[in-house]
Amino acid sequence: MKFTQKYLQRYESLNQHLSTQRHYWQLRPYHVFDYPWRSCNPALADFLDGLDDTAIDRLDPDFYALSQALAAFIPSGPELYQLSQMPPTTAAAAAFPIRLQRAIPGRKWQQISAFVAHLDATHTPLPWLDWCAGKGHLGRLLAHHSGQPVDCIERNPDLCRQGRELAADLPLQFHCADVLAPASAGLLQPDQHAVALHACGDLHLQLLRLSVAHGLRAISLAPCCYHLIASPVYQPLSRAARSTTLRLERQDLQ
Hints:
Layout: H1 2-20, H2 22-25, H3 42-49, H4 53-59, H5 63-69, H6 77-84, H7 106-122, E1 128-131, H8 137-146, E2 150-154, H9 157-166, E3 172-176, E4 193-200, H10 201-214, E5 218-224, H11 239-242
Parallel strand pairs: 1-2, 1-4, 2-3, 4-5
Helix pairs in contact: 5-6, 7-8
């Protein structure tokens, strides 16, 4: 309960800041000829106009320095920056046979192995459900490391075929299915741990909805591309988010 309350308080603070400061960020880049806030905050507009390329290059990647530089014009900026920072999680690196790295690009391998290491540190072993599995790279590591079977859902038949070949000696089962289709709901079982790495937009939202509806024991996901949704307006899932007046359009999520 304390864990939930902590994140609810963080959400409410973020929501308040974003709602009151929406005139600074809720706009279409390159669709306006001047700062929309020039009339209400002319000092900020003048400050931005005075930045040279060197200053912009220095501030652009450094959100802390940017929040401090703008504090005189947007006093809540430093607090918003602090709210956006989450403590890093740590997990001991898991060791995998070199053969499991076959056909996995280096950057993807780093992401998958780190993801599996965190799952190993925080969850009781359960059968896995790999959502939008691709070739099953994540599923293979999970099966090898935990000894648990993995159901991989992927709509591309060619990726399913390649995945079966790569996982011939591991307990992986591929289901060639569209996760957004109603029939995919039948693949979820309560005693599963659903995982998704880089499931875009509606794909990870569908996983969350179905996992709750089917009472899955655990869900671990790292979403991406939040703007890839069918609806022009984001539809929040939690009661807290649904009760807010802050309306996020698809472009706001990019």
